[in-house]
């Protein structure tokens, strides 16, 4: 039986995530996922693609905000800011507003990153639509890259690690799933089966699989050390390269917001295309 083996949320975009046993599915993602973001002085998103050390920042959701820790810095409690104050922010093609966390949080994140930085909170995720090419006009997303959830399978990771091991002559340790920052991880299916899914049920929640996930250099940064290497992009380029990108995992949009998913939930594929058709991706 295919089942949900782990759930992950990332309170601050590009910082460390936390594993949970259950999560409420909201229209824009898992509850508490990527509602905070770090931006530069112009309001443009800062990510671990450029500042690798972001992966060493460990945020934990509290009852009234965040507790953040990082190497060589004292912990900081950040209350959820007043949404009455808004600043302009930019994340990829999205331009919207968010609530500033304030000078103390800005100073802490600037020290942690080694560059000027500001922390903001997305008090109202309905401000950010998803890409209309792959989703509906009413779909929304938090500060995740493009879509509310990302699903990966243990079998696909195992298949990729076989290639990594072969490419390294047996010298490379298996890559952990944390390299790929999925929201949900599934087991009990064939490797790469998720490519063909179009609708899936996880427990009582149903989702549309709207697009494959093209992977960037962020996956090459070790989440434990913030050191960059060539994997997994080098091995993905051997077996999962098309349309000028490398692909791993699929993006989901909830059709039943308000449902709660739990580790151990059964997975049911409600709609799929014939094997080999591949994930949804930009038209050539």
From TrEMBL:
InterPro entries: MoCF_Sase_C, MOCOS_middle, Pyrv_Knase-like_insert_dom_sf. Residues 124-270 form the MOSC domain. It comes from the Bacteria. GO terms for molecular function: catalytic activity; molybdenum ion binding; pyridoxal phosphate binding. It holds the Pfam family MOSC_N. PANTHER family: MITOCHONDRIAL AMIDOXIME REDUCING COMPONENT 1, MOLYBDOPTERIN COFACTOR SULFURASE MOSC. This is MOSC domain-containing protein. It comes from Nocardioides soli.
């Amino acid at each position: 039986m295919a089942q949900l083996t782990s759930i992950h949320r990332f309170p601050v975009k590009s910082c460390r995530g936390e594993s949970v046993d259950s999560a409420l599915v909201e229209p824009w993602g898992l509850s508490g996922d990527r509602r905070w973001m770090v931006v530069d002085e112009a309001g443009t998103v800062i990510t671990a693609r450029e500042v690798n050390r972001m992966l060493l920042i460990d945020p934990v959701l509290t009852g009234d905000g965040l507790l953040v820790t990082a190497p060589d810095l004292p912990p900081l409690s950040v209350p959820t800011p007043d949404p009455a104050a808004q600043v302009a922010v930019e994340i990829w093609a999205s331009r919207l507003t968010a609530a500033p966390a304030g000078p103390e949080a800005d100073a802490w994140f600037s020290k942690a990153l080694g560059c000027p930085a500001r922390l903001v909170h997305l008090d109202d995720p309905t401000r950010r639509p998803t890409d209309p090419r792959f989703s509906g006009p009413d779909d929304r997303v938090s500060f995740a890259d493009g879509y509310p959830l990302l699903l990966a399978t243990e079998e696909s990771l195992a298949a990729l690690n076989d290639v990594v091991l072969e490419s390294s002559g047996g010298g490379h340790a298996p890559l952990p799933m944390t390299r790929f920052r999925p929201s949900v991880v599934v087991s009990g299916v064939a490797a790469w089966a998720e490519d063909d899914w179009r609708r899936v049920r996880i427990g009582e929640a149903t989702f549309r699989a709207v697009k494959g996930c093209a992977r960037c250099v962020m996956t090459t940064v070790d989440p434990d050390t913030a050191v960059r290497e060539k994997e997994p992009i080098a091995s993905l380029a051997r077996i999962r390269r098309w349309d000028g990108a490398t692909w791993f995992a699929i993006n989901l949009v909830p059709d039943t917001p308000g449902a709660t998913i739990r580790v151990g939930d059964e997975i049911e594929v409600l709609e799929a295309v014939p094997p080999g058709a591949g994930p949804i991706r930009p038209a050539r």
